[in-house]
Amino acid sequence: MGDKPIWEQIGSSFVQHYYHIFDTDRTQLGSLYIDASCLTWEGQQCQGKTAIVEKLSSLPFQKIQHSITSQDHQPTPDSCILSMVVGQLKADEDPIIGFHQIFILKNISDAWVCTNDMFRLALHNYG
Amino acid sequence: MGDKPIWEQIGSSFVQHYYHIFDTDRTQLGSLYIDASCLTWEGQQCQGKTAIVEKLSSLPFQKIQHSITSQDHQPTPDSCILSMVVGQLKADEDPIIGFHQIFILKNISDAWVCTNDMFRLALHNYG
User: Fold this and answer.
1) pLDDT tens-digit readout, A74-114
2) Between 20 and 30 A from B41 (CA), which of A32, A54, A86, B85?
3) Do the Cβ atoms of A127 and B45 come within 8 Å?
4) Which domain holds residue B64?
5) How confident is the model over B53-77, as pLDDT tens digits?
6) Is residue A97 one of the residues assigned to a domain?
7) Interface test with chain A among B12, B116, B117, B119, by most A beta carbons within 10 Å
8) Chain B: which residues have CB within 8 Å of chain A?
């Protein structure tokens, strides 16, 4: 980790933490968002910690497991971090499916929180 | 367009403009970036208008055509716009392939420029 730029260390720690919580108990994701946070999930928008956790908690599966194929991180001019994750997930007994997700992380009161989150399944993009 | 939020109008206009220039003459993309802009192209990072245009111009194809499958846009807390594009592209006579790309747009001197750009082909993500 030591040789990597700081935004990459922070971004990849966040990503690891996010999917760990998502896969173990996604009702606990609220601490990663703030009331200004936006989520766009498969084109559906919602805003705010409460609405986001409600959306993620109500997704229709019991078990889920994410695995990451690639992740890219960049610093933004406003001292945020932009992260793009490409990976695969397995929900319940469904077939494995690809997904991509992006996050903007912002440092607020010495903690990194997610202000923007977009998720799409890789359903219709096979070339 | 009138009913859509302003960030969605700006984001989708930018996306349309970007791929139009990319597909007709990608050496002209410089006006969309600034010297602080970051590009991560298939995991390779470069920074600054000049380096980005050099990278995009040197990609090994003559003809390219993008088509967009989905696009999502969000406002960020720092008055930027975050856009995620999923689509397909055809380069020269190669088979059509999926891609995903994200942009952060920032208003500088009354123009929207791209400060952050990440691109990945959907090569290894078929589930």
Assistant:
1) 999 999 999 999 999 999 999 999 999 999 999 999 999 99
2) A32
3) no
4) 6-121
5) 999 999 999 999 999 999 999 999 9
6) yes
7) B116
8) 36, 38, 40, 43, 45, 69-70, 72, 74-78, 80, 82, 84, 86-88, 95-98, 100, 102, 104, 106, 115-116, 118, 120, 122, 124-127
